[in-house]
Amino acid sequence: MELLKKRITENGRALSESVLKVDSFLNHQIDPALINEISSEFCERFSDCSFNKILTIESSGIAPAVMTGLRMGIPVVFAKKAKPSTMTEEFFTAPVHSFTKQKDYDVAIAAKFITKGDRILIIDDFLAHGSASRALIAIAEQGGAKVGGIGIVIEKGFQNGGKLLRELGYRIESLAIIDEMSRDSIVFRD
Amino acid sequence: MELLKKRITENGRALSESVLKVDSFLNHQIDPALINEISSEFCERFSDCSFNKILTIESSGIAPAVMTGLRMGIPVVFAKKAKPSTMTEEFFTAPVHSFTKQKDYDVAIAAKFITKGDRILIIDDFLAHGSASRALIAIAEQGGAKVGGIGIVIEKGFQNGGKLLRELGYRIESLAIIDEMSRDSIVFRD
Predict the structure, then answer these.
(1) A94-136 tens-digit pLDDT
(2) Which of A68, B151, B170, B181 is 20 to 30 A from A97, alpha carbon to alpha carbon?
(3) How far apart, in whole angstroms, are the C-alpha atoms of residue A121 and residue B165?
């Protein structure tokens, strides 16, 4: 997606060879018009698929997930990083390892929001090692749902999450794949 | 907003006289079509105001904030509940007390995203004691910005946050104000 790559080039900043800062339009300040274009692109790329629910993880996945859900006319469920005090009923959990923060945490979704037979689209802002996506897949499977696609805003192609998930047969649509980056340059996959 | 009140009545659940569960459409599963209507209502109610930025707090404020930002054509900044490892520069923080979770935490916004003279609209899913809104006001003020309005999806009118903020002169537009609730009934303010 050219508009997104342009934005990453202009406003993103590689803090190292693995950490990309896109806080001016994606995960701290959000540009709603860009997210709207992103949701349009997800709809186009998955136009041959039929989903009835979107899963994402709080917080940065929520904006693209909700705009995509609006276009597709389906609900969004976001996994929570801590089991909330008002979540009194049964829930599914799966562990996530954050390489950026160097810690493990569980994400949780109330069991009632995953229905056997659900055709799930996962949406997230980043795909790096794939830990978050694998957690959402695990949660979907606990509820008997099937993940039919994974929509990613920015994939770090130099880390192995995308490769691994594609080898497992998952359809991934990443709107921008970065093959290499340094403080001076960001190289996108064609 | 009648559509919202209807939804709260039909799908919300008062777990006690103070805890309202709206996880099927607002803060765990999200109904994007409802959020879209909510953003339309915020635009209409604040049509006499001019804002250049929306502030909210992760996570449940993000969906209504981003859809409102799209309609208003302005960026959204969400305060983070923990200072992220990639937030290396200066930031503003303010404390929030969560009565539901019975704990205090800081929220943070990178200083570069608050500009002197910004005309801020705060959007959040709930207003109860007003702690989250007051934190966002404090952050805005640290950056020399002015809060011109506060848009709330559900106000717990039986708690004092709304009263307090209105007495301080803030313009609050709450789409549904609950005056009283119990396990059997939810009473809205006219």
Answers:
(1) 999 987 778 899 999 999 999 999 999 999 999 999 999 999 9
(2) A68
(3) 40
- Number of A–B residue contacts, CB under 8 Å: 114
Kindly report the number of other CB atoms within 10 A of residue B118's CB atom.
Answer: 20
* Whole-complex ipTM: 0.96
Dist CA A189 CA B12 (whole Å)? 46
Residue B27 and residue A85: Cα distance in Å, rounded? Answer: 13
Residues B33-53 pLDDT 10s: 999 999 999 999 999 999 999
- Find out whether B135 and B107 touch, Cβ atoms under 8 Å: yes
Domain regions of chain A by residue span: 2-188
- B184 CB contacts (<8 Å, ≥6 apart)? none
Residues of B with Cβ-Cβ distance to A55 under 8 angstroms = none
- A2-188 carries CATH number 3.40.50.2020: yes
User: Rounded to whole angstroms, how far apart are CA atoms A38 and A52?
Assistant: 19
Nearest neighbour of A80 by CB, restricted to B28, B31, B101: B28
Q: Of A107, A112, A61, whose CA–CA distance to A84 is shortest?
A: A107
Could you tell me the maximum CA-CA distance found in chain B, to the nearest angstrom? 49
